[in-house]
Each structure stands twice: as structure tokens, then as C-alpha cells.
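Ticket opened by: R.M.
Priority: normal
Category: complex prediction / small molecule

The reporter submitted a protein together with SN-glycerol-1-phosphate and asked that the result be attached to this ticket for the collaborator who will pick it up next week. Submitted input follows.
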Amino acid sequence: MHSDFKQWSHMFKLDPDREISDEWLEKVCLSGTDAIMVGGSTGITFDNTVDLLSRIRRYEVPCVLEVSDLDAIVPGFDRFFIPMVLNAGNPQWIVGHHQRALREYGALLDWSQVATEGYVILNKQSAAAQITEANTALDIKDVEAYARMADRLLHCPVFYMEYSGVFGNMEWVARVKGLLKDARLFYGGGIDSPEKAYQAAAAAHTVIVGNAVYDQPEQALATVQAVREAKAASNMQ
Ligand code: 1GP
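Result attached by the on-call engineer:
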């Protein structure tokens, strides 16, 4: 098990605002996934985040927080991912909330635990797109420009193509991976079967499975092995 996220190929994203039984949480944590990411768009509180973290901590799997709410920055995670939504229409989601968080906690942070995610939200219907007022009417050249911005201009360690709720355009994902120099490409959205997980893992560095954990848990669990197979196949090329 790696503690360096640059080695991770598969993550489950668990939402503190959604119910998961102890039985399924155990299966998810013991699935062989590289890490659990805690995050969501609505209803995230300090209390439900602490609660989920303490349940995940029964297991050895690395656990990271994707910070989306200033009031729910809970200490004790292995790492903190900070999304910077590059195509947000509301600038609060680019630097505004971040500045307020740093005003509060900037002097206390352990920077070695913090990683910025340059985010582009591509599904107009998603809660994340609505909250951030994301401009999702983008062509591949727009997305490539955001990828270069994250990677080369801002030096974000992660560029995240977020299709949350729908399966994205894998040709675009693969093209973006090809142009990144240092950033790792995270892909999330609509992975609800091992087949889709395999395709996404072939296109991106790291895939994130969210909704399927709740809606199709058996299928979600099968994505771990599919990602492993996709990575093994690409290593052999
Ligand atoms: C959401 O990218 C993740 O932030 C995963 O998306 O919920 O569609 O799997 P899904």
C-alpha cells in the first residue's frame, strides 16, 4: 500500500452525506483500492466528516479529504486535496474560499500534506457544476488549455477531469494525459462497471469511483481489479 498519491491508480470517493453500512464500508476499505477520498458537493459538515473518517480509520487504507467546505476541514486525514475549479463561473471556487481558509488555518497547515487539484467540471448537470457555476461548454482545445494551465502555469500536482454522474469522453481524457508534464490526471464520472473502469484507467493516471459505491456496490468493487488489469496491460506495451 502506497502513501504517495502519485502511485495511486484507483480511489473510491465516499460522501459523508450519504449512508453506507458497516458491512459495505468494510468491503470498500478492504477492496484493494489505493485510497479512500472523502468528499462531496452538498450536505458536508464537520460532524459527518469526522464520523466517516473514524469509521474508515478502522482499516489500513489511506484516507484523504477533498476539501469542499470551510467548516468541514477535519484534521487527521493522510492528505488534503484542495480543488481549484478552473472553469468555475463563480470565482469563489477558484481562489475565494481558499483565501478565506488560509486566513483561518494558513499558519497551522502542514504543507507536506496538501495537494492542489486543478479541476475542470465537464458535466453541466452535476451538483458540482451548479454550485460553482461552471462553464461546461468546452471543446477539447479549451480542456487542453486548462490542463496546461494546471500543469505548467500553476504547477498543480493533479489535474482532475470531473464528469461526476456521467461517463466522459475517453478520447479527450487520453489526449489530456498525453500533454501533461508533471501533473497526475485524475478522472472521475460515471464509472459503474469494470469495463468502464478499464477504459478510464487506460486513459487517465488515476480513476475515482463515487456514486456506484452507493448505487451498484458489487459493480463498484469489481472496478478495483479492472483498473489493476488495465495498468498491467499498459505496462506490458
Ligand atoms: C465525483 O469524480 C467523482 O466527484 C466520481 O464520479 O460519482 O460519477 O462516480 P461518480
